[in-house]
Design brief:
Number of strands: 18
Radius of gyration: 20 Å
Shape: elongated
Distance between the termini: 59 Å
CATH superfamily of the largest domain: Probable inorganic polyphosphate/atp-NAD kinase, domain 2
Strand order of the largest sheet: 3-2-1-4-5-6
């Protein structure tokens, strides 16, 4: 029996995905599978998928297909947090770090998945509580200096004890997935997605301590906005989700195996990191 009974599609908000959607529809029709699309997205391109809401998508689909770049893939992963469906990333346009296949490879990838010839890679998430609101991200939570305000002055508390203080433009709390995103651009290390923990990295720091810190999965993390800090914006995967002021404490927790990514064995994490980040070896002496 095939693995795929129902496919859910998550589309890039701007790029033209209609031909690729048609390829998924043709493949699914030939095998009697159902294709769902988020109502507002499929209305934009006028495709023949069944329009549904977020909840029905995640409860019904056996597989989610992300058609876009890393931003689209992160949105698809957030949709399935706590659900069962893995996500296949299909690169549309520029090279996506999280994507598993390019468009021409999609039919063969669907054949492999339907034939149970794939693996899943768990990806941890990071969750922030702001009052009564809880936000989950797959890349990172960021406390960011607001324009016109003073720098972000943040004390990192680990296991209810103060550990280090940062004064910086921002403080990033990243998952291993997010270690190759904002944290990396700020000088943080690359962390294997197989690791479990949270990476804390200051952006443009101007404090005595300016290094990243990696915490294990079970350690309690709290970020205290210090009295001499400016007001800070809080972002989750680049989305503004709230604001905090001096004196407030932000609780941040890791969410183990928040979502699952489909892997077909074509490339390793390190090969994708080399391509996306254009990594090369050190220069040979002449």
């Amino acid at each position: 029996m095939g693995y795929i009974g129902t496919v859910g599609l998550v589309l890039h908000p701007e790029r033209q995905c209609a031909p690729t959607v048609d390829a998924v529809l043709d493949w699914s029709r030939a095998r009697g599978a159902k294709v769902l699309g988020l109502a507002d997205e499929v209305a934009r391109i006028g495709c023949r998928t069944v329009p549904v809401g977020d909840e029905e998508m995640t409860e019904t689909a056996d597989l989610l297909i992300s058609l876009g770049g890393d931003g689209t893939m992160l949105r698809a992963l957030r949709l399935v947090v706590g659900g069962h469906a893995p996500v296949l990333g299909v690169n549309v346009g520029r090279l996506g770090f999280l994507a598993e296949v390019d468009i021409p490879e999609l039919p063969a990838a669907l054949d492999a998945i339907d034939g149970h010839r794939f693996s899943v890679e768990p990806r941890s998430g990071v969750r922030v509580r702001l009052g009564d609101d809880v936000e989950t991200a797959l890349n990172d939570i960021v406390l960011l200096r607001s324009p016109g305000h003073r720098s972000a002055a943040v004390a990192v508390h680990v296991e209810n004890q103060p550990f280090v203080r940062y004064t910086a433009d921002a403080v990033v709390v990243a998952t291993p997935t997010g270690s190759t995103a904002y944290s990396f651009s700020a000088g943080g290390p690359i962390v294997s997605p197989a690791a479990e923990g949270l990476l804390i990295t200051p952006v443009a720091p101007h404090s005595a301590f300016n290094r990243s810190v990696f915490l294990s999965a079970g350690e309690h993390l709290a970020l205290e906005v210090l009295s001499h800090s400016g007001d800070l914006a809080v972002e989750a995967d680049g989305r503004l989700v709230g604001r905090v002021s001096p004196g407030q404490v932000v609780e941040v927790t890791m969410v183990p195996a928040a979502a699952q990514v489909v892997r077909l064995g074509h490339t390793t994490f390190y090969q994708r990191a080399q391509r996306k980040l254009r990594l090369t070896g050190s220069a040979e002496p002449t």
